[in-house]
Amino acid sequence: MQVLQRQRGRLFSALRDHLVEKFRFSDRGSSFWAQPLDAGSVSYEERTVTGVRGRAVELSCGPAVPAVVFWSFTAAGSTGPPQAVAVGSGLEAMVAPGVGALGQASLLNGTLELRELRTAATGRFFCQGLFPEPGRLRVGYAAVLLRVLVPVSRPFVRLTAAAAVEGTEVALMCAVREGTAPLSFSWQHREPRGGPLAAPMGLGGSGAELRLAPANRSHAGWYVCTARNEVNNRSSEPVYLDIIYGPDEPAISMEPFSPEQGGFSAGEREDVVLSCLAPSNPPSRYIWLHNGSQVHTGQTFVIAAIARGQAGTYTCLAENTHLQTRTQATIILTVYYPPAGSPSCSALATADLRDVALRCRWPGGFPPAQLRWVGPGEEEEEEEEEEAAGPSFSMATNIRPGVTTRNGSSFACLATHPTLREGAMCRTTLWVPAGSPACTAVASKRDEFVMLRCRWEGGMPPATLRWWDSRGQALGVPMPSAAVLVLSADASLGGQDFICVATHPLRVAAAQCHLRLDIPKLEVERSEVAVLEGGEARLACRWCGVTHLGAEMVWYDPQEREVPLGMAKYWLEQDEAWANLTVRDAEWPGDGGTYRCTAANAVGTTSLPVHLRVDRYPAPPNVTISKLRYTRARTEVRLEWRTQGTGNLTGFVVQRRQAKKPQRRAPGPWETAAGDIEPHSRDRRLGGLDPTVVYAFRVLAVNHRTAGHPSEVQTPAEPPFEALPAVTGAAVVGMLVATVVSLLAVRCVARHRDNLPRLHDLLFHTASPEAPEIPSTTEDAPAATNREDRAEQGQGDAGGPSTTATAEPLSALPDAAAADLPVDVPIVVMATP
């Protein structure tokens, strides 16, 4: 740092010297520097200047403009040497490097201006200047203490709780990120529904903290904090404080207003509006209860055309969902109304099902309705009886004997009420249901119970039904229109009869229906089904009878396993009346056997067998291999075969495996070498063989899925020996060589007749016509004979090939192995002298 300060000092000394030299050699400078310097005339001034960060400030060296000025700076609290800032003379100035940390500095006429002032400029600026005066130069010094103020930043408000419960303490804190102290704060409050900002009443609010202890609902709203210092003031964004309270006790009002003791009253069919108000924050959730049961949710409950059944107590339940608090208020609403709807008439059998009781009911209303029964042509008589016996309110009963009452008789019930301009009436007609009762039987899901149902609907009053067993014992209790009897499932119920007896007061004789519980009855289309292997067999089963008690037909395979739906092997088709099982791709003997069609209900089980016979196709004929030979490369074989006997066939299969080698090791498994051979083929060329492996082959005939006995196992024979052309060529060459040698020998004898007379006479002696025949000696006869034989033999050799060399022996076997044996061909070369 000291080195840096010395370098800066040298730099500004050079600048100052430069300015001095400039003034010294100028015209103005000559006269200026000619003035004497009054060393005793030294002035010193010290003052304080305040600046604002980011703005501009001017620092003056004195009241007069100095001829030469030099500014330096010492930061507040620093003990080091001052920092050079700027030096200048008149309009020319130079700013020292590194002054940007204080702001944008400029020097004009001795005044130092700092724009965009920085807080680092807080400190002591020292000015040294030469001030020209008449006849002398005065040295002036000025110390400017610069105080940089920081404007207040925008404050922000922090709440201890954004939503506070009424009665608790809440504090609001106002904070600023920067600003020169001292700071002052003020608070403003605005109600939640709007309005001008105002100081909170009775809360002070002059500090950075605003404490509400305790908080109440009037404190809810928007709060704004304003921070001030000697530079500026800023206000925060509004912050909302929510005060949670309530609900207060509800107040219930009603329109139209018709108060009564403990509540309100209204007329029937009148529109009623009930309103409930319970101050709360958050707003209350309102629930309306009618006689303790919830009927509406909301602050207002509108009852359009109020009915008589809507009278009673109404409770308004107000709930604060945040605080989980509730309050309620209850009123009594009275509705004046006639009985609801209209009178209802009914007829019931009574007095051991012999009489009819006519009943008229019209309950409710205020006051109760007055009722009376009127029969055909009996209006006046009934009216006198009612007056004598007294009126009936809400309910009236009239007993009629069933024997004396005609089927189809109609009776009316007349009703009167003070609120009705005209009376009300209901009518009932007594009649016997048509037809007869119907009986059905149903079993439970797990066949644990059997339910007997008897129905005979219609009639007024309804017919009374009851179950009886075949022994005349009553079962269950009498029931109108429908009677149900539940029995525990048992095999003893099979074949039993049950009777449903129906009685009616207007009917003299009872009606009946009968029901018998039977086990399921089945029948099959055929008890035995035959199919060829690979075909489809259809097994059919159907219901035989009407009563099943919910039984279902189930098929079982020969292993007594249930045949489910969706199997690939079996195809199950089922309807309400039948169930067919189709066995696909029948296999022998696995799919053959006895299949069962079974049905079970709550009283028994029925099972019918169907035997499936899977027949195989006839066996194909046996096969014999007639030829099996390698090719020269031993990678292919030529196979020929023939069939023995008659029989259907659809193709052939050729199998191969490695021959048994070594002897102690068992041969490998058979593998299919060709399986797509047509039934008319008798030979096949097979490739893909390993020349180093000895293979064994066999052939099987196939009839659909039935394979015949395999042929004998053979190994391929070696390819035939092909040396005959070479041997024949060698024989021909030898004969030619012998002939040439013989001709040369004869020519030599002819030329040397004198030297070889006997040989010449032997070769060239011919008998002349005159010469007598020379008899042959006994020694020559055999020689001549031998020569003739040899000549004939030589002609035979020259004329064609030897039969012994080419012809196959007659005793040779037609077997392919014998044909492949090597042939020995003797070659004889004869030379004639």
Automatic annotation (TrEMBL):
Residue ranges of domain Ig-like in the record: 155-242, 250-332, 343-417, 418-518, 520-615
Keywords in alphabetical order: Disulfide bond, Glycoprotein, Immunoglobulin domain, Membrane, Repeat, Transmembrane, Transmembrane helix
Any single biological process term in GO: cell-cell adhesion
GO molecular function: cell adhesion molecule binding
Cell compartments where the protein resides: Membrane
Cellular component aspect of the GO annotation: cell-cell junction; plasma membrane
Bias (Acidic residues): 377-388
CDD domains: FN3
Annotated membrane topology: Single-pass type I membrane protein
Region Disordered, residue ranges: 371-396, 658-685, 767-813
TM annotation in the entry: 723-746
Domain Fibronectin type-III per the UniProt entry, residue ranges: 619-721
UniProt protein name: V-set and immunoglobulin domain containing 10 like 2
